[in-house]
Specification:
Layout (H helix, E strand, L loop, with lengths): L2 E6 L12 H12 L3 E6 H4 L1 H11 L3 E5 L5 H14 L4 E5 L1 H5 L1 H7 L5 E3 L4 H8 L10 E5 L2 E4 L31 E2 L2 E2 L6 E3 L2 E2 L10 H5 L3 E2 L2 H13 L4 E4 L8 H13 L5 E6 L6 H10 L1 E9 L3 H6 L6 H14 L2 E8 L6 H14 L3 E6 L2 E2 L4 H8 L15 E2 L6 H12 L1 H4 L18 H11 L8 H12 L4
Parallel strand pairs: 1-2, 1-3, 3-4, 4-5, 10-13, 13-14, 14-15, 15-16, 16-17
Antiparallel strand pairs: 5-6, 6-7, 8-9, 11-12, 18-19
Helix pairs in contact: 1-7, 9-10, 10-11, 11-13, 16-18, 18-19
Length: 476
Protein backbone atom coordinates (compact mmCIF):
# COMPACT_ATOMS: atom_id res chain seq x y z
CA UNK A 1 0.00 0.00 0.00
CA UNK A 2 1.26 3.48 -0.92
CA UNK A 3 0.50 6.76 0.83
CA UNK A 4 -0.56 9.65 -1.41
CA UNK A 5 -1.29 13.28 -0.67
CA UNK A 6 -3.20 15.23 -3.32
CA UNK A 7 -3.07 18.98 -2.82
CA UNK A 8 -4.57 22.23 -4.10
CA UNK A 9 -2.39 25.35 -3.72
CA UNK A 10 -3.57 27.88 -1.17
CA UNK A 11 -3.89 30.49 -3.95
CA UNK A 12 -5.69 28.73 -6.75
CA UNK A 13 -8.96 30.55 -7.44
CA UNK A 14 -9.79 32.58 -10.53
CA UNK A 15 -13.28 33.70 -9.48
CA UNK A 16 -14.95 31.48 -6.86
CA UNK A 17 -14.11 28.58 -4.59
CA UNK A 18 -14.85 25.23 -6.22
CA UNK A 19 -14.28 21.76 -4.76
CA UNK A 20 -11.30 19.83 -6.22
CA UNK A 21 -13.47 17.29 -8.05
CA UNK A 22 -10.66 16.08 -10.31
CA UNK A 23 -8.51 15.17 -7.31
CA UNK A 24 -11.48 13.46 -5.67
CA UNK A 25 -11.90 11.24 -8.74
CA UNK A 26 -8.23 10.30 -8.51
CA UNK A 27 -8.47 9.70 -4.78
CA UNK A 28 -11.44 7.39 -5.25
CA UNK A 29 -9.59 5.29 -7.83
CA UNK A 30 -6.46 5.06 -5.67
CA UNK A 31 -8.42 4.18 -2.55
CA UNK A 32 -10.42 1.53 -4.38
CA UNK A 33 -7.08 -0.05 -5.32
CA UNK A 34 -6.13 -0.24 -1.64
CA UNK A 35 -3.97 2.85 -1.19
CA UNK A 36 -4.06 5.43 1.60
CA UNK A 37 -5.07 8.82 0.17
CA UNK A 38 -5.62 12.27 1.61
CA UNK A 39 -6.80 15.45 -0.16
CA UNK A 40 -5.92 18.88 1.21
CA UNK A 41 -7.42 21.95 -0.42
CA UNK A 42 -5.01 24.72 0.48
CA UNK A 43 -7.63 27.33 -0.40
CA UNK A 44 -9.66 26.09 2.55
CA UNK A 45 -7.12 24.65 4.98
CA UNK A 46 -4.44 27.27 4.38
CA UNK A 47 -0.80 26.90 3.46
CA UNK A 48 0.42 26.06 6.96
CA UNK A 49 -2.08 23.22 7.41
CA UNK A 50 -1.25 21.79 3.99
CA UNK A 51 2.47 21.53 4.70
CA UNK A 52 1.90 20.29 8.23
CA UNK A 53 -0.11 17.40 6.81
CA UNK A 54 2.60 16.70 4.26
CA UNK A 55 5.40 16.82 6.82
CA UNK A 56 3.68 14.70 9.44
CA UNK A 57 2.02 12.24 7.05
CA UNK A 58 5.14 10.47 5.76
CA UNK A 59 3.73 10.22 2.24
CA UNK A 60 5.29 8.22 -0.57
CA UNK A 61 3.69 10.30 -3.31
CA UNK A 62 2.63 13.93 -3.66
CA UNK A 63 0.33 15.05 -6.49
CA UNK A 64 -1.32 18.19 -7.81
CA UNK A 65 -3.19 19.45 -10.87
CA UNK A 66 -1.58 22.02 -13.16
CA UNK A 67 -3.99 24.41 -14.89
CA UNK A 68 -2.50 26.82 -17.42
CA UNK A 69 -3.54 30.14 -15.83
CA UNK A 70 -2.51 28.90 -12.37
CA UNK A 71 0.50 26.79 -13.29
CA UNK A 72 3.01 28.75 -11.18
CA UNK A 73 0.96 28.14 -8.03
CA UNK A 74 1.15 24.39 -8.67
CA UNK A 75 4.83 24.53 -9.56
CA UNK A 76 5.52 26.14 -6.20
CA UNK A 77 3.87 23.15 -4.51
CA UNK A 78 6.27 20.72 -6.17
CA UNK A 79 9.29 22.87 -5.39
CA UNK A 80 8.40 23.10 -1.72
CA UNK A 81 7.49 19.41 -1.46
CA UNK A 82 10.90 18.42 -2.81
CA UNK A 83 12.62 20.90 -0.52
CA UNK A 84 10.93 19.36 2.52
CA UNK A 85 11.13 15.74 1.36
CA UNK A 86 13.59 15.16 -1.51
CA UNK A 87 12.66 11.46 -1.60
CA UNK A 88 8.92 11.94 -2.17
CA UNK A 89 7.70 11.07 -5.68
CA UNK A 90 5.92 14.06 -7.20
CA UNK A 91 3.11 13.57 -9.73
CA UNK A 92 1.70 16.38 -11.90
CA UNK A 93 -1.46 16.12 -13.99
CA UNK A 94 -4.07 18.36 -15.51
CA UNK A 95 -4.64 20.19 -18.77
CA UNK A 96 -1.34 22.08 -18.91
CA UNK A 97 0.78 18.97 -18.38
CA UNK A 98 -1.30 17.07 -20.93
CA UNK A 99 -0.85 19.73 -23.61
CA UNK A 100 2.79 20.76 -23.08
CA UNK A 101 4.32 17.83 -21.17
CA UNK A 102 7.92 18.19 -22.36
CA UNK A 103 8.09 21.90 -21.62
CA UNK A 104 6.55 21.37 -18.17
CA UNK A 105 9.05 18.67 -17.23
CA UNK A 106 12.02 20.62 -18.53
CA UNK A 107 10.92 23.78 -16.72
CA UNK A 108 10.07 22.19 -13.34
CA UNK A 109 12.62 19.55 -12.44
CA UNK A 110 10.88 19.02 -9.11
CA UNK A 111 8.16 17.09 -10.97
CA UNK A 112 9.12 13.43 -11.20
CA UNK A 113 6.23 12.16 -13.34
CA UNK A 114 3.77 14.00 -15.57
CA UNK A 115 0.40 12.37 -16.16
CA UNK A 116 -0.97 12.98 -19.66
CA UNK A 117 -4.74 12.89 -20.13
CA UNK A 118 -7.09 10.88 -17.98
CA UNK A 119 -5.44 10.00 -14.70
CA UNK A 120 -7.37 7.42 -12.69
CA UNK A 121 -5.92 4.19 -14.05
CA UNK A 122 -2.51 5.78 -14.60
CA UNK A 123 -2.36 6.79 -10.94
CA UNK A 124 -3.32 3.32 -9.75
CA UNK A 125 -0.51 1.76 -11.80
CA UNK A 126 2.02 4.32 -10.55
CA UNK A 127 1.10 3.71 -6.92
CA UNK A 128 1.41 -0.04 -7.42
CA UNK A 129 5.12 0.40 -8.16
CA UNK A 130 4.96 -0.73 -11.77
CA UNK A 131 7.98 0.11 -13.92
CA UNK A 132 7.47 3.58 -15.37
CA UNK A 133 8.11 2.37 -18.91
CA UNK A 134 5.17 0.00 -18.50
CA UNK A 135 2.72 2.72 -17.46
CA UNK A 136 0.85 4.31 -20.35
CA UNK A 137 0.05 8.01 -20.41
CA UNK A 138 3.03 9.48 -18.56
CA UNK A 139 6.26 11.40 -19.10
CA UNK A 140 9.27 10.99 -16.82
CA UNK A 141 13.03 11.45 -16.62
CA UNK A 142 15.54 8.73 -17.34
CA UNK A 143 18.95 10.22 -16.74
CA UNK A 144 19.11 13.41 -18.78
CA UNK A 145 16.37 12.30 -21.16
CA UNK A 146 12.60 12.59 -21.04
CA UNK A 147 10.65 9.42 -21.78
CA UNK A 148 7.04 9.59 -22.95
CA UNK A 149 5.06 6.37 -22.90
CA UNK A 150 2.19 5.24 -25.12
CA UNK A 151 -1.12 7.05 -25.09
CA UNK A 152 -3.51 5.86 -22.38
CA UNK A 153 -6.74 4.23 -23.53
CA UNK A 154 -9.84 6.13 -22.46
CA UNK A 155 -11.91 4.78 -19.59
CA UNK A 156 -15.47 3.52 -19.76
CA UNK A 157 -17.38 6.19 -17.81
CA UNK A 158 -19.59 3.51 -16.27
CA UNK A 159 -16.48 2.12 -14.56
CA UNK A 160 -15.03 5.37 -13.20
CA UNK A 161 -15.41 5.46 -9.39
CA UNK A 162 -17.59 8.13 -7.82
CA UNK A 163 -15.51 11.03 -6.42
CA UNK A 164 -14.30 10.50 -2.84
CA UNK A 165 -16.50 13.27 -1.45
CA UNK A 166 -15.94 12.10 2.12
CA UNK A 167 -12.35 13.41 1.96
CA UNK A 168 -13.39 17.08 2.06
CA UNK A 169 -15.59 19.32 4.16
CA UNK A 170 -18.48 20.70 2.06
CA UNK A 171 -19.16 23.82 4.12
CA UNK A 172 -16.58 26.20 2.55
CA UNK A 173 -17.81 25.60 -1.00
CA UNK A 174 -20.68 27.98 -1.60
CA UNK A 175 -22.16 29.82 -4.57
CA UNK A 176 -20.38 33.09 -5.33
CA UNK A 177 -23.71 34.91 -5.09
CA UNK A 178 -26.83 34.40 -3.00
CA UNK A 179 -29.37 32.23 -4.79
CA UNK A 180 -32.99 32.52 -3.68
CA UNK A 181 -35.36 30.01 -5.27
CA UNK A 182 -38.98 29.47 -4.32
CA UNK A 183 -38.41 31.70 -1.32
CA UNK A 184 -35.47 29.62 -0.08
CA UNK A 185 -31.96 31.05 0.16
CA UNK A 186 -29.23 28.68 -1.00
CA UNK A 187 -26.39 31.15 -0.55
CA UNK A 188 -25.25 29.76 2.79
CA UNK A 189 -25.51 26.11 1.77
CA UNK A 190 -22.82 23.91 0.17
CA UNK A 191 -22.62 24.32 -3.60
CA UNK A 192 -20.84 21.39 -5.24
CA UNK A 193 -19.63 20.81 -8.78
CA UNK A 194 -20.45 17.51 -10.44
CA UNK A 195 -19.83 16.11 -13.92
CA UNK A 196 -22.01 13.91 -16.11
CA UNK A 197 -19.57 13.53 -19.02
CA UNK A 198 -16.03 14.14 -20.21
CA UNK A 199 -15.01 15.92 -23.36
CA UNK A 200 -17.19 17.97 -25.67
CA UNK A 201 -19.18 17.43 -28.85
CA UNK A 202 -17.79 20.69 -30.24
CA UNK A 203 -14.32 21.66 -31.40
CA UNK A 204 -14.17 25.43 -30.85
CA UNK A 205 -10.97 27.16 -31.89
CA UNK A 206 -10.38 28.69 -28.43
CA UNK A 207 -10.93 25.57 -26.30
CA UNK A 208 -8.46 22.83 -25.34
CA UNK A 209 -11.07 20.36 -24.01
CA UNK A 210 -10.82 18.21 -27.12
CA UNK A 211 -7.03 17.97 -26.69
CA UNK A 212 -7.26 16.70 -23.11
CA UNK A 213 -10.27 14.35 -23.32
CA UNK A 214 -10.03 13.47 -27.05
CA UNK A 215 -13.70 12.60 -27.42
CA UNK A 216 -17.02 13.02 -25.66
CA UNK A 217 -18.17 10.31 -23.23
CA UNK A 218 -21.36 10.28 -21.18
CA UNK A 219 -21.72 8.78 -17.70
CA UNK A 220 -24.87 6.64 -17.35
CA UNK A 221 -27.76 8.70 -15.98
CA UNK A 222 -28.45 6.31 -13.11
CA UNK A 223 -24.84 6.56 -11.96
CA UNK A 224 -24.96 10.35 -12.02
CA UNK A 225 -28.14 10.36 -9.94
CA UNK A 226 -26.55 7.84 -7.55
CA UNK A 227 -23.87 10.44 -6.84
CA UNK A 228 -26.43 13.21 -6.37
CA UNK A 229 -28.51 10.94 -4.13
CA UNK A 230 -25.51 10.27 -1.95
CA UNK A 231 -24.69 13.97 -1.67
CA UNK A 232 -28.31 14.81 -0.83
CA UNK A 233 -28.12 12.29 2.02
CA UNK A 234 -25.09 14.26 3.25
CA UNK A 235 -27.03 17.52 3.27
CA UNK A 236 -26.24 18.96 -0.18
CA UNK A 237 -29.04 20.15 -2.47
CA UNK A 238 -27.39 22.82 -4.64
CA UNK A 239 -25.16 21.83 -7.59
CA UNK A 240 -23.37 23.05 -10.69
CA UNK A 241 -23.27 20.44 -13.46
CA UNK A 242 -20.15 21.85 -15.06
CA UNK A 243 -19.29 19.57 -17.98
CA UNK A 244 -19.34 21.06 -21.48
CA UNK A 245 -21.99 18.78 -22.96
CA UNK A 246 -24.44 17.62 -20.31
CA UNK A 247 -27.35 17.94 -22.78
CA UNK A 248 -25.73 16.40 -25.86
CA UNK A 249 -27.80 13.22 -25.55
CA UNK A 250 -31.52 13.91 -25.20
CA UNK A 251 -32.18 10.37 -23.96
CA UNK A 252 -29.67 10.92 -21.15
CA UNK A 253 -31.40 14.13 -20.07
CA UNK A 254 -34.82 12.48 -20.07
CA UNK A 255 -33.55 9.48 -18.09
CA UNK A 256 -31.76 11.81 -15.68
CA UNK A 257 -34.93 13.83 -15.08
CA UNK A 258 -37.06 10.71 -14.66
CA UNK A 259 -34.60 9.24 -12.15
CA UNK A 260 -34.48 12.48 -10.14
CA UNK A 261 -38.29 12.44 -10.04
CA UNK A 262 -38.56 8.75 -9.22
CA UNK A 263 -36.29 9.18 -6.19
CA UNK A 264 -38.08 12.41 -5.22
CA UNK A 265 -34.81 14.30 -4.91
CA UNK A 266 -35.44 17.96 -4.13
CA UNK A 267 -32.42 19.69 -5.65
CA UNK A 268 -31.53 22.89 -7.49
CA UNK A 269 -28.78 23.10 -10.06
CA UNK A 270 -27.30 25.11 -12.89
CA UNK A 271 -25.69 23.68 -16.01
CA UNK A 272 -23.23 24.64 -18.74
CA UNK A 273 -24.24 23.80 -22.29
CA UNK A 274 -23.96 24.41 -26.01
CA UNK A 275 -26.78 26.36 -27.65
CA UNK A 276 -27.20 23.99 -30.59
CA UNK A 277 -28.18 21.08 -28.35
CA UNK A 278 -31.09 22.77 -26.58
CA UNK A 279 -34.60 21.64 -27.48
CA UNK A 280 -37.94 22.32 -25.75
CA UNK A 281 -38.01 18.69 -24.64
CA UNK A 282 -34.59 18.96 -23.03
CA UNK A 283 -35.37 22.32 -21.40
CA UNK A 284 -38.63 21.04 -19.91
CA UNK A 285 -36.87 17.93 -18.55
CA UNK A 286 -34.14 20.05 -16.99
CA UNK A 287 -36.68 22.37 -15.39
CA UNK A 288 -38.70 19.60 -13.77
CA UNK A 289 -35.55 18.00 -12.35
CA UNK A 290 -34.46 21.23 -10.63
CA UNK A 291 -32.47 23.26 -13.16
CA UNK A 292 -32.82 26.99 -12.63
CA UNK A 293 -30.00 28.44 -14.77
CA UNK A 294 -28.05 27.55 -17.91
CA UNK A 295 -24.62 28.96 -18.73
CA UNK A 296 -24.67 29.03 -22.52
CA UNK A 297 -21.62 29.64 -24.66
CA UNK A 298 -23.16 32.07 -27.15
CA UNK A 299 -19.75 33.79 -27.53
CA UNK A 300 -20.89 36.38 -30.10
CA UNK A 301 -23.86 37.82 -31.95
CA UNK A 302 -21.88 38.02 -35.19
CA UNK A 303 -22.00 35.12 -37.64
CA UNK A 304 -18.55 36.07 -38.92
CA UNK A 305 -17.08 35.75 -35.43
CA UNK A 306 -18.95 32.51 -34.67
CA UNK A 307 -17.51 30.99 -37.85
CA UNK A 308 -14.00 32.18 -36.91
CA UNK A 309 -14.38 30.54 -33.49
CA UNK A 310 -15.40 27.24 -35.04
CA UNK A 311 -18.76 27.20 -33.24
CA UNK A 312 -20.52 25.40 -36.11
CA UNK A 313 -23.85 27.07 -35.40
CA UNK A 314 -25.83 30.07 -36.53
CA UNK A 315 -26.81 33.22 -34.65
CA UNK A 316 -30.39 32.02 -35.11
CA UNK A 317 -29.51 28.85 -33.17
CA UNK A 318 -28.33 30.99 -30.26
CA UNK A 319 -31.51 33.09 -30.34
CA UNK A 320 -33.67 29.97 -30.44
CA UNK A 321 -31.78 28.45 -27.50
CA UNK A 322 -32.30 31.56 -25.37
CA UNK A 323 -36.01 31.63 -26.22
CA UNK A 324 -36.30 27.94 -25.36
CA UNK A 325 -34.76 28.49 -21.94
CA UNK A 326 -36.88 31.56 -21.23
CA UNK A 327 -40.03 29.63 -22.19
CA UNK A 328 -39.08 26.79 -19.84
CA UNK A 329 -38.52 29.19 -16.93
CA UNK A 330 -34.74 28.64 -16.83
CA UNK A 331 -32.47 31.66 -16.34
CA UNK A 332 -30.17 32.45 -19.25
CA UNK A 333 -26.56 33.15 -18.29
CA UNK A 334 -24.82 34.33 -21.44
CA UNK A 335 -21.12 33.58 -21.89
CA UNK A 336 -19.58 36.00 -24.38
CA UNK A 337 -16.13 36.49 -25.91
CA UNK A 338 -15.33 40.01 -27.08
CA UNK A 339 -12.34 40.89 -29.25
CA UNK A 340 -11.70 37.49 -30.79
CA UNK A 341 -10.29 36.74 -34.22
CA UNK A 342 -12.24 38.61 -36.89
CA UNK A 343 -13.81 41.00 -34.36
CA UNK A 344 -14.41 44.60 -35.40
CA UNK A 345 -16.74 47.47 -34.52
CA UNK A 346 -19.52 46.10 -36.70
CA UNK A 347 -19.40 42.66 -35.10
CA UNK A 348 -19.40 44.19 -31.61
CA UNK A 349 -22.53 46.13 -32.48
CA UNK A 350 -24.08 42.92 -33.83
CA UNK A 351 -23.33 41.33 -30.47
CA UNK A 352 -25.08 44.15 -28.64
CA UNK A 353 -28.08 43.74 -30.94
CA UNK A 354 -28.03 40.03 -30.17
CA UNK A 355 -27.92 40.60 -26.40
CA UNK A 356 -30.77 43.09 -26.68
CA UNK A 357 -32.71 40.43 -28.56
CA UNK A 358 -32.16 37.51 -26.16
CA UNK A 359 -32.18 39.61 -22.94
CA UNK A 360 -30.08 37.28 -20.75
CA UNK A 361 -30.75 37.21 -17.02
CA UNK A 362 -27.01 37.43 -16.39
CA UNK A 363 -23.83 37.32 -18.38
CA UNK A 364 -20.07 37.04 -18.21
CA UNK A 365 -17.87 38.54 -20.89
CA UNK A 366 -14.29 37.69 -21.63
CA UNK A 367 -12.68 41.05 -22.30
CA UNK A 368 -10.61 39.42 -24.99
CA UNK A 369 -9.97 35.97 -26.39
CA UNK A 370 -7.81 34.03 -23.94
CA UNK A 371 -5.02 32.19 -25.74
CA UNK A 372 -4.39 28.74 -24.31
CA UNK A 373 -1.86 26.15 -25.53
CA UNK A 374 -3.24 23.40 -27.67
CA UNK A 375 -5.94 25.54 -29.27
CA UNK A 376 -6.22 26.60 -32.89
CA UNK A 377 -6.44 30.25 -31.85
CA UNK A 378 -3.18 29.91 -29.96
CA UNK A 379 -1.51 28.37 -32.99
CA UNK A 380 -2.84 31.23 -35.13
CA UNK A 381 -1.49 33.80 -32.67
CA UNK A 382 1.94 32.16 -32.76
CA UNK A 383 1.97 32.37 -36.56
CA UNK A 384 0.96 36.02 -36.33
CA UNK A 385 3.88 36.70 -33.97
CA UNK A 386 1.80 37.68 -30.93
CA UNK A 387 3.59 35.16 -28.70
CA UNK A 388 5.55 31.90 -28.76
CA UNK A 389 5.80 28.76 -26.63
CA UNK A 390 8.29 30.42 -24.27
CA UNK A 391 5.42 32.54 -22.94
CA UNK A 392 4.39 29.63 -20.68
CA UNK A 393 7.78 29.75 -18.95
CA UNK A 394 6.99 33.20 -17.59
CA UNK A 395 4.82 34.30 -14.69
CA UNK A 396 1.93 35.80 -16.67
CA UNK A 397 -1.07 33.46 -16.33
CA UNK A 398 -2.22 33.78 -19.94
CA UNK A 399 -2.35 36.16 -22.89
CA UNK A 400 -5.24 37.69 -24.78
CA UNK A 401 -5.60 38.02 -28.52
CA UNK A 402 -4.88 41.68 -29.24
CA UNK A 403 -4.51 41.92 -32.99
CA UNK A 404 -7.82 43.75 -33.48
CA UNK A 405 -8.14 45.66 -30.18
CA UNK A 406 -5.63 46.61 -27.50
CA UNK A 407 -5.96 45.10 -24.03
CA UNK A 408 -7.21 48.36 -22.43
CA UNK A 409 -9.86 48.63 -25.13
CA UNK A 410 -10.95 45.04 -24.55
CA UNK A 411 -11.29 45.55 -20.80
CA UNK A 412 -13.43 48.64 -21.30
CA UNK A 413 -15.56 47.04 -23.98
CA UNK A 414 -16.19 44.01 -21.78
CA UNK A 415 -17.16 46.07 -18.78
CA UNK A 416 -19.47 48.31 -20.76
CA UNK A 417 -21.27 45.30 -22.21
CA UNK A 418 -21.53 43.63 -18.80
CA UNK A 419 -23.25 46.68 -17.32
CA UNK A 420 -26.77 45.74 -18.34
CA UNK A 421 -28.24 48.97 -17.01
CA UNK A 422 -26.56 50.72 -19.91
CA UNK A 423 -26.71 47.79 -22.31
CA UNK A 424 -30.50 47.87 -22.63
CA UNK A 425 -30.62 51.65 -22.98
CA UNK A 426 -27.88 52.25 -25.53
CA UNK A 427 -27.35 50.99 -29.05
CA UNK A 428 -23.57 51.46 -29.18
CA UNK A 429 -20.72 50.88 -26.75
CA UNK A 430 -19.59 53.96 -24.82
CA UNK A 431 -15.97 53.75 -23.75
CA UNK A 432 -16.38 56.80 -21.52
CA UNK A 433 -17.89 54.50 -18.87
CA UNK A 434 -14.30 53.65 -17.95
CA UNK A 435 -14.42 56.23 -15.19
CA UNK A 436 -17.53 54.59 -13.75
CA UNK A 437 -15.93 51.22 -13.10
CA UNK A 438 -13.64 50.27 -10.19
CA UNK A 439 -10.23 50.07 -11.84
CA UNK A 440 -7.90 47.18 -11.29
CA UNK A 441 -5.63 47.98 -14.20
CA UNK A 442 -3.56 51.19 -14.34
CA UNK A 443 -3.83 51.10 -18.12
CA UNK A 444 -7.60 51.09 -17.96
CA UNK A 445 -7.64 54.11 -15.67
CA UNK A 446 -5.30 55.93 -18.04
CA UNK A 447 -7.56 55.17 -20.97
CA UNK A 448 -10.59 56.26 -18.96
CA UNK A 449 -9.02 59.59 -18.00
CA UNK A 450 -8.02 60.30 -21.58
CA UNK A 451 -11.41 59.43 -22.99
CA UNK A 452 -13.74 60.58 -20.22
CA UNK A 453 -13.45 64.25 -21.17
CA UNK A 454 -15.07 63.46 -24.49
CA UNK A 455 -18.28 62.08 -22.99
CA UNK A 456 -20.59 63.97 -25.33
CA UNK A 457 -18.55 64.49 -28.44
CA UNK A 458 -17.32 60.92 -28.87
CA UNK A 459 -20.37 58.88 -27.85
CA UNK A 460 -20.29 56.51 -30.82
CA UNK A 461 -18.06 53.47 -30.70
CA UNK A 462 -16.29 53.79 -34.08
CA UNK A 463 -15.19 57.39 -33.51
CA UNK A 464 -14.45 56.68 -29.86
CA UNK A 465 -12.11 53.82 -30.68
CA UNK A 466 -10.27 55.82 -33.30
CA UNK A 467 -9.73 58.66 -30.86
CA UNK A 468 -8.72 56.32 -28.06
CA UNK A 469 -6.10 54.63 -30.19
CA UNK A 470 -4.55 57.92 -31.24
CA UNK A 471 -4.30 59.12 -27.63
CA UNK A 472 -2.84 55.98 -26.04
CA UNK A 473 -0.60 55.01 -28.92
CA UNK A 474 -2.25 51.63 -29.33
CA UNK A 475 -3.41 52.59 -32.79
CA UNK A 476 -4.01 49.84 -35.25
Amino acid sequence: MSKLLLAVPHKFTLDALYPPVGLLYLAAAAREAGHDVRVVDGQVAGEEALWREFTEGDYDYFGATVLTPLREESYDLFRKAKKIRPDVVTLAGGAHVSIVPEQTMEHVREIDVGVIGEGEQTLVELLSGRSLREVDGIIFREGHDLVRTAQRELLDMAEVPMPAWDLIDFAPYRAYEDVVLDGISYGEEPFLTIYTSRGCTGSCSFCSTWWVWRKWRQTPAVKVVDEIDRLVSLGVRHFFIADDSMISDENFVLEFADEIGRRELSIKFKIACRADKLTPTIADALKRSGCYEAHVGFESGSQKVLDALGKKLKVADNIRAAETLHNAGIRVYALMILGSTGEDVQSLNETIDFLNRIRPDAMATMGGLMLLPGTRDYQRAVKEGLLNDDFWLGADPFMYYTKNFSRPELILIGRCVEDRRHLWRRRLLHLQFALYYPADYAQVMNVGRLYGRFLRVYSLLPRGLRYLRRKVGGGR
